[in-house]
């Protein structure tokens, strides 16, 4: 399943980068996060609770940041397991300065689903992913405004 | 044989429908046995994965859990067998990997069973199954049969590193076909996919196995199409338990369409577990579980070429097919793309040279086997798409092209059967008749005018033809034996006349929607001259029915009905002896008609009821005759039967959206003699709905990782009543010359004939709008049709 999206945020690339690299912020802005713990310099263990239509379950697994270019881009490797199926994803995130106070965050990735997640229809899952993405950006905007 | 009382040929209402439509059908899941337990399976979420460990401790500790078995527990038990051996071209046997009851080393398709949890309730079993922790190492998967054979692809089984199960060839030598093809004035070639379908019986698979430690006997209730075959395969090939210690019952079964022919791993596993636990174990598939584990149908990737001379006469046909077997060999999987597909490529035509080459391939997908039509829809699709496309390419009328190439009519009695280039000998046929009838129903000349008018008004109207033949009445045992079948395919019919003249009929055929309890009773009532209410049809129980081979391949009436007729003949013959003795006449002078035994040329007669009673109260009785009136017969057909027909679809294609609307559907089917026209029409309706479903809506979609991405009704589109027009049906009757009822079978015809008619109609509509499209991949979703229009010049 392809995952793509972008959003212009009212903050400088350095500010956005700072937020994206902060575990506490991430735990607040990623929808459904119940725990997010750093296990290494660029790796985390996480549990997520997601309930949306047929997608209802507790996901647990690892997040890993790779190919990091400071304030420009990184690749997020996601590996999550749940009773309703497993997910493996690699998502490249790019920060592109629009102006001194605006940054476009875009992401492009591919998620491989298995089990019920795959079988229950990627059409539905795609919709869920879109909604979660919107939530993520909305949350991130709020964080940026608050700080 | 006796004359009739006229019930044959009447649209008698189905006697079984009363219980079905009032909710009183009794299905396997309705059966709850004393001390019942329930099973739930732990299934692989990966198409290909090494199983590193299975941790059952947490699940085992859960309340109500009685047992958990994994692949290690059943490692010493055989896998489920394949019922048909096909050899490679070089004579070596096909690759036949073990299909274990639970996998221990590797999962080979999504849904492969890794463990089973048995608990006091269904809910507890399901909850505990979620707690079984399986550590998988995911491996790369292969899903496409044509890709799987390429070097460097992952192997499904070590014994077939190139994923090839067998290669196979039939017909004239390749060189001869190539030579004929080289002389062709026109060659129509087509590369296409006959996509994978999910059978979707309304009743999911369900099994309930019981072991009685007192008698040391097993009973298996199973939603199957053939209880005796399941017993034979399970006892002799899998569990090694004596057959006479096992009773298999197929109670009411809610549809099969082929998917319930096969012996599934769950049947044997539950039977084995019931002895371990000394308690009955039941499992019923959930819908998505059915999508993942019921054997699928079709899945051919084909390249076909047909050569014509300048006048449109067919010179040769060349076919190459990759047939997807899935991860394991299901019971009849190997014969579907070969002996049920390659042998049908003569179609209705006089094609002098035919060569078909089939490669059967393992992939990391659900096993593929017979689904309504099984091989014959693929053959028909291939031929009929080629014919309509050739007509468009050569600018010859598609009806005319067919009429020109049809085999001339033959009745199989005064004229011999037709010997094809691909092994079969057709029994009887009148192919011109069905097409001409279809053209008349369509109002063909007028249609072409309508089509031109529509084009002026910016609408794309199309007509598609399909003329099909199938090989049914499966099957002559010696013939199929020589082709690799590991079973005989006769049928058994027992007719037990009770002392009161009521009649119990035991048949090895099995009804799961076809209406045997009505059709078979009509035959018996007619032949014996008694009311239908006096006849009971008993099927689906290995204890009450002597033996049987079940229902598939449109065989029940042609083979099962013929076995019953043989027994009726024996009853009448014995009845004549009893009547002659009582009437002090010679048995040779007796005749039987309308339920009466009469001395020829006199008014001296005795009723069927009198003779029945005398047979059981033999006070005045021939000295050399046994009492009783009860005969059992085995009927082994001498040939397949060959139903045929003509299906015509009219569609409208929306130029803006590509949406296809089926406007008319005409079906003229020749299924030989018809016992119950209403039931035949119903079978045609159901089959056509499924065939239209394949053309327009259905298709299993795997992603590159082997995940079935439409494993529920949210994404797998089934045809609905409002997608379909009122079908216009008619029959033609060309009796089968080699069975006593003259019947050919009607169960699969609708699904075989309809699919190419619909696709051809869409292609015709597009050509009428100037879009010279050769093929659109089924199902013809709006998007695919729209794209086809965008990529072709208007």
From TrEMBL, chain A:
Q: Which InterPro entries match?
A: CO_DH_gsu (IPR010419), START-like_dom_sf (IPR023393)
**Designated name of the protein:** Carbon monoxide dehydrogenase subunit G
> What organism does the UniProt record list as the source?
Rhodocytophaga rosea
TrEMBL record, chain B:
Is-annotated flag, keyword Oxidoreductase?
yes
Report the coiled-coil segments.
none
The Aldehyde oxidase/xanthine dehydrogenase a/b hammerhead domain, residue ranges = 22-140
- Which SMART domains does this entry report, sorted A to Z? Ald_Xan_dh_C
Keyword list, A-Z: Molybdenum, Oxidoreductase
Keyword Oxidoreductase present in the record's keywords: the answer is yes
- Name of one Pfam family that matches: MoCoBD_1
Q: Which Gene3D superfamilies match?
A: Aldehyde oxidase/xanthine dehydrogenase, a/b hammerhead (3.90.1170.50), Aldehyde oxidase/xanthine dehydrogenase, molybdopterin binding domain (3.30.365.10)
Q: Which GO terms describe its molecular function?
A: iron ion binding; oxidoreductase activity
Provide the transmembrane region boundaries: none
Q: What is this protein called?
A: Xanthine dehydrogenase family protein molybdopterin-binding subunit
Q: Which organism is it from?
A: Rhodocytophaga rosea
Q: Recall the taxonomic lineage recorded for the source organism.
A: Bacteria, Pseudomonadati, Bacteroidota, Cytophagia, Cytophagales
């Amino acid at each position: 399943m392809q995952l793509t999206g972008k959003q212009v945020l009212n903050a400088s690339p350095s500010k956005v980068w700072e937020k994206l690299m902060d575990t506490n912020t991430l735990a607040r802005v990623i929808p459904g996060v119940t725990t997010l713990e750093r296990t290494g310099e660029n790796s985390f263990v996480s549990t997520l609770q997601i309930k949306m239509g047929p997608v209802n379950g507790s996901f647990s697994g690892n997040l890993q940041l790779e190919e990091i270019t400071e304030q420009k881009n990184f690749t997020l490797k996601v590996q999550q397991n749940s009773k309703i199926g497993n997910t493996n994803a690699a998502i490249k995130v790019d920060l592109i300065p629009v102006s001194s106070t605006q940054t476009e965050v875009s992401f492009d990735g591919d998620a491989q689903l298995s089990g019920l997640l795959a079988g229950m229809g990627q059409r539905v899952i795609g919709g869920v992913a879109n909604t979660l993405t919107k939530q993520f950006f909305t949350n991130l905007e709020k964080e940026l405004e608050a700080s | 044989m006796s004359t009739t009382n006229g019930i044959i040929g009447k649209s008698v209402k189905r006697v079984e429908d009363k219980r079905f439509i009032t909710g009183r059908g009794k299905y396997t899941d309705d059966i709850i046995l004393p001390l019942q337990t329930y099973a739930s399976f732990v299934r692989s979420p990966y198409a290909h994965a090494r199983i590193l460990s299975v941790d059952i401790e947490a699940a085992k500790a859960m309340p109500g859990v009685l047992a958990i078995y994994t692949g290690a527990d059943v490692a010493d038990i055989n896998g489920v067998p394949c019922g048909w051996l096909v050899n490679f071209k070089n004579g070596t046997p096909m690759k036949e990997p073990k299909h274990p009851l639970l996998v221990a080393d590797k999962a080979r398709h999504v849904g492969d069973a890794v463990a089973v949890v048995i608990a006091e309730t269904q809910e507890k079993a399901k909850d505990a199954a979620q707690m079984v922790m399986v550590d998988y190492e995911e491996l790369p998967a292969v899903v496409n049969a044509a890709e799987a054979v390429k070097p460097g692809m992952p192997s499904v089984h070590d014994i077939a590193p190139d994923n090839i199960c067998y290669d196979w060839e039939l017909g004239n030598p390749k060189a001869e076909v190539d030579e004929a093809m080289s002389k062709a004035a026109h060659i129509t070639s087509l590369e296409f996919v006959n996509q994978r379908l999910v059978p979707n019986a309304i009743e999911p698979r369900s099994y309930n196995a019981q072991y009685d430690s007192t008698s040391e006997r097993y009973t298996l209730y199973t939603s199957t199409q053939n209880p005796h075959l399941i017993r034979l395969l399970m006892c002799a090939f899998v569990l090694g338990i004596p057959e006479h210690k096992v009773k298999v019952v197929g109670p009411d079964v809610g549809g099969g369409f082929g998917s319930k022919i096969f012996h599934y791993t769950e049947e044997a596993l539950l039977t084995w577990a019931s002895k371990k636990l000394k308690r009955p174990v039941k499992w019923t598939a959930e819908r998505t579980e059915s999508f993942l584990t019921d054997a699928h149908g079709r899945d051919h990737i084909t390249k076909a070429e047909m050569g014509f001379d300048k006048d449109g006469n067919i010179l040769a046909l060349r076919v190459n097919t990759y047939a997807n077997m899935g991860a394991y060999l299901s019971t009849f999987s190997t014969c579907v793309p070969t002996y049920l597909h390659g042998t049908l490529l003569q179609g209705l035509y006089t094609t002098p040279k035919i060569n078909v080459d089939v490669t059967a391939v393992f992939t990391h997908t659900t096993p593929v086997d017979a689904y309504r039509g099984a091989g014959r829809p693929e053959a028909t699709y291939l031929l009929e798409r080629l014919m309509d496309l050739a007509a468009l390419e050569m600018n010859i009328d598609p009806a005319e092209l067919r009429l020109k190439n049809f085999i001339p009519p033959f009745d199989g009695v005064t004229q011999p059967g037709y010997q094809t280039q691909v092994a079969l000998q057709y029994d009887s046929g009148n192919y011109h008749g069905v097409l001409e009838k279809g053209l008349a129903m369509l109002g063909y000349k007028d249609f072409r005018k309508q089509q031109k008018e529509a084009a002026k008004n910016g609408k794309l109207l199309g007509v598609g033809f399909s003329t099909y033949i199938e090989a049914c009445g499966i099957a002559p045992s010696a013939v199929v034996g020589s082709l690799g079948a590991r079973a005989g395919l006769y049928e058994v019919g027992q007719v037990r006349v009770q002392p009161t003249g009521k009649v119990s009929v035991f048949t090895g055929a099995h009804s799961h929607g076809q209406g045997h309890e009505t059709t078979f009773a009509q035959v018996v009532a007619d032949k014996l001259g008694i009311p239908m209410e006096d006849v009971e049809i008993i099927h689906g129980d290995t204890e009450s029915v002597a033996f049987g081979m079940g229902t598939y391949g449109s065989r029940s009436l042609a083979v099962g009905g013929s076995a019953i007729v043989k027994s009726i003949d024996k009853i009448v013959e014995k009845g004549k002896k009893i009547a002659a003795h009582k009437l002090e006449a010679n048995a040779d002078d007796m005749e039987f008609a309308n339920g009466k035994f009469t001395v020829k040329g006199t008014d001296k007669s005795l009723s069927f009821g009198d003779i029945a009673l005398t047979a059981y109260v033999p006070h005045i009785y021939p000295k050399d005759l046994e009492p009783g009136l009860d005969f059992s017969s085995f009927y082994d057909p001498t040939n397949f039967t060959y139903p045929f027909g003509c299906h015509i679809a009219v569609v409208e294609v929306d130029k803006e959206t590509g949406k296809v609307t089926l406007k008319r559907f005409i079906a003229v089917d020749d299924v030989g003699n018809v016992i119950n026209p209403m039931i035949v029409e119903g079978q045609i309706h159901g089959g056509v709905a499924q065939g239209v479903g394949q053309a327009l809506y259905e298709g299993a979609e795997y992603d590159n990782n082997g995940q079935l991405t439409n494993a529920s009704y949210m994404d797998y589109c089934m045809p609905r009543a409002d997608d379909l027009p009122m079908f216009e049906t008619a029959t033609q009757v060309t009796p089968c010359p080699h069975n006593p009822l003259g019947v050919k079978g009607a169960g699969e015809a609708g699904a075989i004939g309809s699919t190419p008619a619909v696709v051809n109609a869409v292609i015709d509509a597009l050509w009428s709008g100037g879009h010279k499209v050769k093929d659109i991949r089924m199902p013809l979703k709006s998007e695919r049709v729209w794209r086809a229009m965008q990529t072709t010049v208007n």
